[in-house]
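Render this sequence as a predicted structure.
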Amino acid sequence: MKSSVLVLGVEEFTRKDGTRAARLVVASTPRNSSARGMAAASLDVLPEVAERMSVFPAIYDLTLDLPIGGFGGRSEVRPVVVGATLVAPVVPDKVKNANA
């Protein structure tokens, strides 16, 4: 599944078991019609995809995988970003500075 999203930043970290992980902070319009402004959410992202993302804030085309997992009969779907392509930076000069 592909989606264009405003990506605000990325957080990379190491879990207690020593594996690397990362999360994207994205912005979207709130579902509640009485809310104004943007709502922030986080998405899990593969660490190797997060490393290639260097321009923030920016619009990215994200490729999502929707793995289904769970415990004790409860199923859960957590989107995982498996690919990202820069569409446009929010500040045009950011691309020039990131490539320098």
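Summary. The chain has a mean pLDDT of 87. Residues 44 and 64 are 10 Å apart (CA to CA).
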